[in-house]
Specification:
With about 180 residues, the protein is α+β, with helices and mostly antiparallel strands. The protein has helices spanning about 1-20, 25, 55, 60-75, 90-105, 105-110, 135-140, 165-170; strands spanning about 80-85, 130, 150, 160.
Length: about 180
């Protein structure tokens, strides 16, 4: 019996690690103790329904409604939409950018993952990073019905609202944020 418990624990750890995105390490990092819930930092179990967190509550109202509509339907399939990151204060965004520069070695390489505060759709509340593989897979298959589109090929967790997708499907993705005219430095 003990071997079964240990095996299940090891499998759980491996599944959790395999579902972790490269940038999640930066989001879940220490941040020198400065990033707070008021800045948009979220606990691991935050969902699209957690209005008590500014990172969720400060999302654009139309984006949040689309996410909640999709999450209700996804729940019928046993899928929960966890929010790794939503709205962020400019200070938190700048902190994430500094951490990404330290991690990736240059501002140019970091820009593939983190925009400046004045360009980030997270700061304006127009972007959300969805956690857990099941939710990302569900959204990639069904998100356009709600106007929710993956914007960057390198960020399968990053979604934004594109209402025209409901009728026409999601627009082509950018390779990464450095190819997005809105976020060019």
């Amino acid at each position: 019996m003990g071997l079964v418990v240990v095996t299940a624990a090891v499998i759980g750890i491996l599944v959790h690690r395999s579902s972790t995105d490269p940038f999640t390490e930066v989001l879940r990092g220490d941040h020198g103790g400065t990033a707070t819930e008021a800045d948009g930092s979220l606990p691991d179990d935050a969902t699209v329904f957690d209005d008590k967190y500014p990172g969720v509550a400060n999302l654009d109202a139309k984006l949040l409604q689309a996410l909640r509509d999709a999450a209700k339907d996804a729940a019928d399939d046993g899928v929960t939409f966890y929010v790794n990151s939503g709205w962020r204060s400019p200070e938190y965004q700048n902190q994430l950018l500094r951490e990404a520069i330290a991690k990736y070695g240059s501002k140019e390489k970091a820009a593939r993952w983190v925009a400046t505060p004045d360009k980030s759709p997270h700061v304006s509340g127009h972007a959300v990073d969805i956690g857990h593989s099941e939710a990302k897979t569900w959204l990639s298959e069904h998100g356009s019905k709600y106007g929710l589109c993956q914007i960057y090929r390198n960020e399968p967790w990053h979604y934004e609202l594109r209402p025209q997708a409901i009728e026409h499907g999601c627009p082509p993705m950018y390779a990464d944020p450095t190819h997005d005219p809105r976020t060019r430095q």
